[in-house]
């Protein structure tokens, strides 16, 4: 939330997406004086030959053939990066703060690698760290995509730039992890970063998908967890894995058939978490468990900014503070705004 708020403060106000310049060619006709008798005769003689209008082709020599539009180029990349220079500074500062506080950056260890695995019972965090890497990359890419579309002179290809930059930033962070004896460089984390970047491209490129689908993190309150499970004995800036739950939310407001019904306020959720892997959970003897969740939730953005007869803040939807609130609710699931049923699997007693 702090990173999102920082981006909102540093970013320029949202505007209408920059329009693409269309290539057009106009043909002009010259004013002619009334034809003479001889000209009329010549016109009659030449009327037997059909005359077709001049058409420009890609190989024609008349006029200038417009160059095909460029979908993506290094020039666009440079323009995109410049348009989000302050956002990049905020992301870099946030990542540095987390790395120094939570990940032991700068302790001077030699570069080391580690094979961490994915979601099996003998992994360090039960896969929560891998989902966390993918989610973090997605959030950075998605925010940068939004800001590029708002600020760049040519926003075409914004999802590609956002994903490339987010993947690069998270890859740099993983490389710095390699110089800490505690975490080390993980190829699995790099792959997870790629999954998050790909999801960001998909969500921002498929028409209508971002209106239908959110990927969120919920910081679960103590009442959601077993007795004795605290924030963490090693808590830092980021929430610990034993208090995280990741959720995919399908929003009714994104479907045309539901936009004018009360179901526009509803969401369908699918979630996952892993418990029993962290130090305080092991000390208390809790079993290793991974849980899938299904549930229904309330779309807070639709409640606060959606169209309808319910009074809300829709008139301020396009302001910068409203943008920050909407992005926050796209990435963070507020506890007690959804009801879940969980199915635990592969429980392992200690």
From TrEMBL:
It comes from Microvirga arabica. InterPro entries: DUF2279_periplasmic_lipo. This is DUF2279 domain-containing protein. Keywords: Signal. Pfam families: DUF2279. Residues 1-24 form the signal peptide.
């Amino acid at each position: 939330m702090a990173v999102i708020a920082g981006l909102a403060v540093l970013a320029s106000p949202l505007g209408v997406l920059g329009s693409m310049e269309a290539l057009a060619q106009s043909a002009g006709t010259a004013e002619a004086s009334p034809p003479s008798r001889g000209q009329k005769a010549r016109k009659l003689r030449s009327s037997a030959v059909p005359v077709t209008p001049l058409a420009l082709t890609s190989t024609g020599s008349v006029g200038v053939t417009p160059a095909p539009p460029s979908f993506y180029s290094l020039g666009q990349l440079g323009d995109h990066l410049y348009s989000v220079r302050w956002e990049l500074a905020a992301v870099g500062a946030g990542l540095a703060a987390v790395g120094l506080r939570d990940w032991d950056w700068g302790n001077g260890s030699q570069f080391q690698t580690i094979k961490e695995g994915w979601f099996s019972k003998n992994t360090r965090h039960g896969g929560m760290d891998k989902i966390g890497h993918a989610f973090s990359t997605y959030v950075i890419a998605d925010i940068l995509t939004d800001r590029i579309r708002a600020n760049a002179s040519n926003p075409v290809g914004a999802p590609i730039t956002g994903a490339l930059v987010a993947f690069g930033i998270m890859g740099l962070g993983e490389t710095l992890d390699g110089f800490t004896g505690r975490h080390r460089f993980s190829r699995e984390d790099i792959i997870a970063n790629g999954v998050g970047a790909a999801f960001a491209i998909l969500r921002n490129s498929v028409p209508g998908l971002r209106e239908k689908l959110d990927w969120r993190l919920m910081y679960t309150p103590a009442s959601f967890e077993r007795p004795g499970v605290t924030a963490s004995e090693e808590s830092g800036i980021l929430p610990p894995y034993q208090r995280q739950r990741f959720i995919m939310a399908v929003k009714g407001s994104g479907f045309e058939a539901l936009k004018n019904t009360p179901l526009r306020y509803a969401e369908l959720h699918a979630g996952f978490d892993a418990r029993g892997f962290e130090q305080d959970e092991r000390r208390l003897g809790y079993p290793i468990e991974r849980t899938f969740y299904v549930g229904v939730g309330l779309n807070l953005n639709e409640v606060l900014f959606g169209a309808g007869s319910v009074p809300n803040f829709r008139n301020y939807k396009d302001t910068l503070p409203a943008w920050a609130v909407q992005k926050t609710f796209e990435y963070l699931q507020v506890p007690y705004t959804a009801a879940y049923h969980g199915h635990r699997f592969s429980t392992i007693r200690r």
